[in-house]
Amino acid sequence: MKKLTKVFVNSPYVVWSALFVIVPLFIVIYYAFTDANGAFTFDNIVALKDYGHNFRISIGYSLIATIITLIIGYPVAYELSKAPPKTQKIQMMLVMLPMWMNLLIRTYTWMNILDNNGILNKILSLLGLGPVTFLGTPGAVIFGMVYNYLPYMILPIYTVMAKMDDSLLEAARDLGCNGFNVWRRLILPLSIPGVISGITMVFVPSVSTFYISQKLGGGKIMLIGDTIERQMQSNYNYHLGASLSLVLMVIILVSMFIMNRFSDGAGEGGMVA
Amino acid sequence: MRIANKIIKWHVYVFLYLPLVIMIFFSFNSAKSTSVFEGFSLKWYGELFSSSDTLEALRNTMILAIASAFIATVLGTLAALGIYMVRNKIYKQSMLSVTNIPLMNPDIVTGVSLMLLFVFVGRALGFSQYLNFWTLLIAHVTFNLPYVILNVLPKLNQTDKSLFEAAQDLGAPPPRAFFMVVLPQIVPGIISGAIMAFTLSLDDFVISYYTSSGFQTLPLKIYSMTKKVVKPDMYALSSLIFLVVLVLLLGSNIFQMRAENKTSRVLRKEQKARKKSKEIAV
User: Fold this and answer.
1) Which residues contact A169 (CB under 8 A, 6 or more apart)?
2) Are A82 and B113 in contact (CB < 8 Å)?
3) Whole-prediction pTM value?
4) Cβ–Cβ of A101/B107 closer than 8 Å?
């Protein structure tokens, strides 16, 4: 009887995730290694060599965006965790609210602002700084990533910092640690888990985006996401789309693996220090 | 140092809200432009409400979000129970890992993999059209499930097992014991999971983009609108969405704060009562 309920409770989810989580991943592999007739081939994998540039700029731009969000987000998260408790909740909401706006809307609005005839260039011309072409440059795409995913960096770092015990910091100061050393020896190691999840939460959507590059890249900058989108939605070459997705998946897995290794090591180091 | 941090923080707020302010401002523009303001007008809002396309997209979005959140909540709560009950460690760990896959995978990979599944099955069955409302619903339930599970599971782990056993000892059959004893304890987790599923479904563009055709939701509609030349009607639509989100968020926060105040008031009263009874005992 007990066993029966267990099976009854468990099986819907097991069946669902097998059908719609596990099987699709194998179908991606299947499509990546077959041609239109269903015959086994390496062609889709060989064809990837034409996309080296797209992979390089995707990883490069997302890394830069991740570093910028970390540099901006870290002090903001720290400052937020030290804000008076009464306003802390409201300030946190202020950071989260733009995240609830659809990414399409946020990116699209920036496209209009940065456009050659957009409001920013109108202001710049009034100041005599002339129109500046923003759209279509790598800077604009990286800017879009930073804008859209900055809250994802602030949030996890804020969470670990808010949990930090203030008496620890006071103890460190009492024992003669100066400001910078308190940060280096105490705050930094304790905040590493938040930094790690912030980095993954910014890097993963950045490296796989296609809308940001489509709108702010002015059609000139093709990231991995754009190449996949093109194969799936306009060229209807599902086999190439699948092999591109497969590589994207591998990139994510590898970066997660590196981040996990890094966080384990840092955690131990923090304990020792 | 603190002052520098504060300056950065306020710049970040301005940075985060600048496009939203510009968007709301130009949604009231009487001209077609999104960079030159010519005068105040509500005509873009009027146009929005007279466009049957937009209203249909709004209706579709709500249908999909409610349906997928409902299915995901029921399935996810069952799944959390299942994961909680499983004793075999390897089985439990693998169930948890599978739950994490849609969370770790970028949306585009989830979307493409599901699309390929639907194309594969559709071709095998000889359909001419592979994607429809049902494929979209399956996709939304699939990416919502982990959020429900991860909201319910911690609540289950917090429940006291002996209460469930006590109910059974007192003669309640297991299903009745579950509904009367366990379920009330995990309801907060179920509700927050359902709300999360609902909002994620409302907001999703990437996965819907690959798993739907014909059934247009609001994000898909916005996507097709942004492919054409800019008009402030998109700004009007976005401003309205922003307003709704703001009201919802403020409402839930106020609700939460009130609930917290209430519980803390009750706790304080209890403490006072306990103190008094102690004093009396002394």
Assistant:
1) A182, A186, A187
2) no
3) 0.87
4) no
